[in-house]
Amino acid sequence: MRLSVLSAAVASTTLPAMAFKVRVTYDTKYDDSKRPLSEVACWNPNVPGLFPDFDTWLVQGDITPHTVAIPSITGWEHPDCITCWMVTKEPAGITRFLLAIDGSKDGFVTSPETMNWLTVGQARDYNRLEPLEVEAKQVSPANCGFAPMDFGLERWDEL
Fold this sequence. Notes:
Barwin-like endoglucanases, six-stranded mixed barrel, 2 helices, RlpA-like_sf
């Protein structure tokens, strides 16, 4: 797991990421601070935690409240686990940085709190029939509160 997290961290800082449009919905389970992280796709069954350096992350309340499930994540070894995503709602230009911890079937799925922040309190107005569309781009883990040493690096541009 550490190698995939490290490669994702390095890739997200050395390669220019392309922004793309994606639909965002919410699920109340991402607001549950007591929800065990063992229920998310990025949980590593070989260590207690999302990855070895963060073995105290056991419930959702231990991590940033701004998390996201994305379709590409299929399991704990996926390189998109523990990556940071910048989502922007246009035309207002409202931006939030989200930490990818889980997989989704379709589009991005986040918490009602984050969805309300993106929609200025209007999350309930968006649903499967009329979902919120945002621009998403993978960005440096620093935007989600990580330091290079969290990934065993001195600088983000190290290999």
